[in-house]
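[step 3/7] inverse_fold.run input=structure_tokens len=348
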């Protein structure tokens, strides 16, 4: 049954929050925070389901992508899940995410994930040889995460992620370690309104190092015959990871045996950008067919695009012994183009 009070409260929060976000950014428009962090691939949204609801997913769970969005949600997964997702990112980059969530009963839930962004091989070009030297190079970014989540009560869950982060280009590499901390609470009002919070990418800095910074110099050009092959290394700067605080709410405004409508809203406070809001909704027909839509980066004055949509199906496999899930997500990034995401999941 539809609860008008839930719709009213959600719209009221959005109406109050959006102007405040916009006002804050207007006052600070002359102070840009873009390009002040490394490891930007850690901010790429994961999973077709989450992308299609405008990345409003901190207070939503139900599949293994919750390990990325809020590890606390993994404590509420009843069965083992294996998930693979691929995104067609900008500039022909390939973005992949693989996750496994293993519930251990009262002991909690363990998870393992890997995120990768890669360019593929590209020719090395120089001023002297603009058509290529015959060598190939590539750029890649990888994050490997270990997750643990547990229900502290029937309403409150916590989750933790420890991850190794690596970025490389040709013969250079940077490494860091980071942690995510999430919490998820189910209230006793508005059809069990859920409140989620996440602090992500709290960790060490990234600093490139490798033989591409090595060169050979002559200590004193004024002296004839002095050694001109003294090895030196260029000292690279360190850059922090994109720290982000995200707060979200979600609830079911319709929930019966045939239909379910879930609405969600997230507020973001990243270290390398201004505050913004994501909103989205999911319509489910008999928990078999799903339609989704959303809008991201509301209130961000320099955003590109924002509209998101998608859908999916859930079906029993092999006589009902396991379930298979196929989801598709679309997100518009304005002048940058569109992003298409495909996710395949299996529940054991």
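[step 3/7] decode complete -> sequence:
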């Amino acid at each position: 049954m539809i609860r008008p009070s839930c719709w009213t409260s959600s719209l009221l929060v959005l109406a109050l929050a959006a102007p405040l976000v916009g006002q804050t950014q207007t006052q600070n428009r002359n102070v840009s925070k873009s390009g002040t962090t490394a490891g930007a691939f850690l901010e790429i949204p994961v999973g077709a389901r989450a992308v299609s609801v405008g990345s409003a997913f901190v207070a939503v769970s139900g599949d293994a992508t919750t390990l990325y969005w809020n590890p606390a949600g993994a404590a509420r997964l009843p069965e083992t899940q294996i998930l693979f997702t691929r995104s067609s990112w900008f500039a022909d980059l390939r973005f992949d995410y693989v996750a496994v969530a293993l519930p251990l009963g009262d002991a909690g839930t363990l998870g393992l994930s890997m995120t990768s962004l890669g360019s593929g091989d590209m020719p090395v070009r120089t001023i002297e040889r603009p058509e290529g030297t015959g060598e190939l190079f590539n750029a890649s970014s990888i994050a490997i995460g270990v997750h643990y989540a547990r229900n502290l009560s029937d309403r409150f869950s916590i989750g933790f992620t420890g991850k190794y982060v690596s970025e490389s280009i040709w013969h250079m590499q940077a490494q860091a370690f980071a942690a995510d901390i999430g919490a998820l609470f189910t209230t006793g009002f508005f059809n069990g309104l859920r409140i989620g919070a996440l602090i992500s990418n709290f960790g060490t800095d990234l600093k490139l190092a490798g033989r591409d910074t090595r060169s050979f110099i002559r200590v004193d050009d004024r002296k004839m015959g002095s050694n001109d092959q003294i090895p030196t290394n260029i000292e690279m700067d360190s850059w922090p990871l994109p720290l982000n605080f995200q707060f979200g709410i979600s609830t079911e405004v319709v929930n019966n045996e045939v239909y379910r409508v879930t609405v969600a809203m997230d507020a973001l406070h990243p270290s390398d950008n201004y505050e913004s809001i994501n909103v989205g909704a999911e319509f489910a027909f008999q928990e078999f067919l799903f339609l989704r839509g959303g809008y991201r980066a509301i209130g961000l004055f320099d955003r590109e695009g924002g509209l998101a949509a998608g859908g999916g199906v859930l079906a029993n496999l092999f006589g009902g012994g396991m379930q298979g899930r196929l989801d598709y997500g679309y997100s518009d990034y304005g002048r940058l183009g569109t992003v298409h995401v495909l996710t395949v999941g299996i529940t054991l």
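[step 4/7] annotate
The longest strand covers residues 172-186.
The chain has a mean pLDDT of 88.
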